[in-house]
């Protein structure tokens, strides 16, 4: 029956496991372990645990399993493994499947910690990593040589919001037998069909839109049952990056409202992008859902025109103007999370991407005037009014 459910129904009811009390809201099984009826039962469970049989919370827990099943159902994935953070998911997915000598091709425009895992950690263990410009299919084609083991990218990149063509890159990867892993945080589970378009593994930082209220760190790796249970699970359960049951409960409740929140935030982001077009204080307004975005045709195809909840603004007056603008805002907060109910602005060049050498910042378009805005659930007109008065002060 649940096979025919639409996404909003899946996000509310998917994966629910009720205890003997018949609770309406999902129970938090805040337990590290589970009691066996007998020594034989313990031996039996260690030999092969059934769907509703748990051993130790690092291996699995009923509340965590509810979250895994619900988001897998939402994403159209066979299975999922929940992790302590988004980075535990990214590093776990990659490390669990790679070995020395393997070749990985990745887009260069990545979240700072993803770049660190690929560039500084995996290479230390003998994995070869080549970076390409994710928007350039010719570069992907040249780099994805026979023997390439994995292809990694953020479908919508941070902070310049470039779009990678999931279907085209997946086709190139599959032609040489490579596994496609997509970090899909910016596209959100609401606007993404990454698996349908060819991705093998989809990763989310649940810290972002899935919680969406700034309370907890979490992550999820989604893929085939074979990949999740045979490759990811053994690695995660022995290395310890599992999600806590309390966090899983926060994320389950987050999934119930995810669709409503993300759509409202994306609608406001579009309204803001529209209101700021051609503003004299700005040299660029970047929003993938706006027709002015260079890759809007791909956004139409890949995300049904939805541009997500983040936009980036480039202040013509550079860093001084960007700082004045940030300091003059009264509604959004200055912080570095995204996907939150509260609008959040950040100055990537001096915070999230501070570590990058100048030539890489230039290459990625992380200019001194660039600010990233994660649009929250406030009234869009209030946000636009606040942004316009702050731009006046920054000029
Ligand atoms: C935030 C983020 C991560 C890391 O997630 P954490 O939950 O902070 O560990 C990875 N990738 C992208 C694209 C992100 O935005």
What can you see in these coordinates?
The protein has 395 residues and is an alpha/beta fold. It is 41% helix and 15% strand. The chain has helices at residues 7-13, 39-47, 62-75, 86-97, 112-121, 137-143, 166-175, 188-191, 225-239, 245-276, 296-303, 318-328, 358-364, 380-394, and strands at residues 79-83, 103-107, 128-132, 148-154, 179-183, 201-205, 219-223, 282-286, 310-315, 333-334, 344-346, 370-374. The strands form 2 sheets. Strands 1-7-6-5-4-2-3 form a 7-stranded mixed β-sheet, sandwiched between helices. It has a 5-stranded mixed β-sheet with strand order 8-9-12-11-10. The radius of gyration is 21 Å and the shape is globular. 50% of the residues are buried. The mean pLDDT is 96. Bound molecules: pyridoxal-5'-phosphate.
Largest sheet: 7 strands, mixed
- Spans of at least 5 consecutive residues with low confidence: none
Spatial order of strands in the largest sheet = 1-7-6-5-4-2-3
Which geometry do the CA atoms define? globular
Number of helices: 14
Hetero ligands? pyridoxal-5'-phosphate
DSSP E strands, number: 12
Order of helices and strands: HHHEHEHEHEHEHEEHHEHEHEEHEH
Mean pLDDT: 96
> Which percent range fits the helix content?
40-55%
CATH architecture of the largest domain: 3-Layer(aba) Sandwich
């Amino acid at each position: 029956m649940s096979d025919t459910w639409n996404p909003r129904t899946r996000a509310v009811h998917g994966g629910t496991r009720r205890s003997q009390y018949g609770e309406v809201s999902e129970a938090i099984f805040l337990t590290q372990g589970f009691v066996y009826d007998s020594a034989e039962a313990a031996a039996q469970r260690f030999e092969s645990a059934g769907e509703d049989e748990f051993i130790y919370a690092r291996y699995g827990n009923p509340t965590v399993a509810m979250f895994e099943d619900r988001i897998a159902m939402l994403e159209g994935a066979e299975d999922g493994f929940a992790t302590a953070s988004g980075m535990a998911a990214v590093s776990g997915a990659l490390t669990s499947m790679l070995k020395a000598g393997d070749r990985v091709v990745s887009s260069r425009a990545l979240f700072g910690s993803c770049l660190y895992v690929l560039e500084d950690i995996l290479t230390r263990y003998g994995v070869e990593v080549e970076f390409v410009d994710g928007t350039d299919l010719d570069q992907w084609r040249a780099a994805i040589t026979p023997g390439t083991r994995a292809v990694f990218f953020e479908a919508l990149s941070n902070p310049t919001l470039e779009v990678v063509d999931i279907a085209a890159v997946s086709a190139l990867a599959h032609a040489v037998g490579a596994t496609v892993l997509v970090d899909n945080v910016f596209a959100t589970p609401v606007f993404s069909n990454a698996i349908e378009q060819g991705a093998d593994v989809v990763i989310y930082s649940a810290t972002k839109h899935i919680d969406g209220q700034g309370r907890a760190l979490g992550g999820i790796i989604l893929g085939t049952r074979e990949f999740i249970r045979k490759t990811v699970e053994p690695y995660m359960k022995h290395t310890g990056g599992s999600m806590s049951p309390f966090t899983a409960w926060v994320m389950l409740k987050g999934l119930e409202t995810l669709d409503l929140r993300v759509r409202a935030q994306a609608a406001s982001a579009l309204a803001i992008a529209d209101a700021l077009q051609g503003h004299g204080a700005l040299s660029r307004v970047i929003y993938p859902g706006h027709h002015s975005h260079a890759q809007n045709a791909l956004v139409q195809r890949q995300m049904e025109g939805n541009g997500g909840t983040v936009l980036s603004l480039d202040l013509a007056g550079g860093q001084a103007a960007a700082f004045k603008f940030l300091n003059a805002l009264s509604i959004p907060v200055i912080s570095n999370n995204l996907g939150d109910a509260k609008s959040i602005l950040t100055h990537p060049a001096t915070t999230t991407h501070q570590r990058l050498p100048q030539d890489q910042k230039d290459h990625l378009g992380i200019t001194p005037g660039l600010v990233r805005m994660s649009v929250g659930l406030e009234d869009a007109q209030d946000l636009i009014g606040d942004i316009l008065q702050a731009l006046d002060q920054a000029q």
